[in-house]
Amino acid sequence: MYRTVKATSGRQIFQPLHTLRSAEKELLPGFHQFEWQPALKNVSSSWDVGIIDGLSGWTASVDDVPADTIARRFRYDVALVSALKDLEEDIMEGLRQRGLDDSTCTSGFTVVVKESCDGMGDVSEKHGSGPAVPEKAVRFSFTIMSISIRADDEEDAVTIFQEQKPNSELSCRPLCLMFVDESDHETLTAILGPVVAERKAMLESRLILSIGGLMRSFRLFFRGTGFDEKMVREMEGLEASGSMYVCTLCDSTRAEASQNMVLHSITRCHTENLERYEIWRTNPFSESADELRDRVKGVSAKPFMETQPTLDALHCDIGNATE
């Protein structure tokens, strides 16, 4: 029995079923060998890892209630390797176009990864025969935005790959799918906590991967710019969008923002939010609830995801209004 598959080129290819199966295996994370130097902390060195339980890697403490949800994900490094192998031809073509000698370019590659996470809305089962799960789903995904290389004798890095359609579903790769409401801070923390830990480990190591028949070394940089405001508030432990503290990046209240549209600056960072959460939790100055809330400026839960302080939608709107 013959089936057909559409290659990335869009051509129809007729193949026997077993050939298609093996072709599919190559496309899924967990097929390609790689290694990290130094080895990733707290992450297994095995590379042939397929789909895993979304909660694996979460070390529950005594007072944590086990998260009651279904989540499935790839291990972050395994998924990134699969994405890079998909771009193998583009990387080689980029080296050729830039006139770089393929055999000398084995180290110095820099990969910028955009992370995205958002709720997928109501996914409840309409006829009610399956397992009882939360009726909302969240997807965490990533996109390889650019790959550049700095040659030994050059000062500036040369970009050899740039994603032309960074917001297309073709370049956006799902990493983790979970049945959870995006405003359920605790469950999100339990599921995405291990993802964040893996990412942090990757920042301190180099990926060694065969591209074009040679082992090459990659450094990875992550940009959390694919989160909307609601998701950033959730991950940074801030009050929801109805809060009097209007912004995810500064301490402006609604009243201040309406009075002053010019003097807005990015003042918040992840570590400061963590410090404010500790003040909220411990109340070291024995203040009343209102005084304490005024001190922490809208921080209400423990943040768990590092977000880059880049301009958010609200500051853009304020800037446009000023113009």
TrEMBL record:
Residues 1-34 form the V(D)J recombination-activating protein 1 DNA-binding domain. Residues 111-243 form the V(D)J recombination-activating protein 1 RNase H domain. Residues 245-307 form the V(D)J recombination-activating protein 1 ZnC2 domain. Residues 35-107 form the V(D)J recombination-activating protein 1 pre-RNase H domain. One of its GO terms (molecular function) is double-stranded DNA endonuclease activity. GO terms for cellular component: DNA recombinase complex; endodeoxyribonuclease complex; nucleus. It holds the Pfam family RAG1_pre-RNase_H. One of its GO terms (biological process) is adaptive immune response. This is Recombination activating protein 1. It comes from Yasuhikotakia morleti. The gene is RAG1.
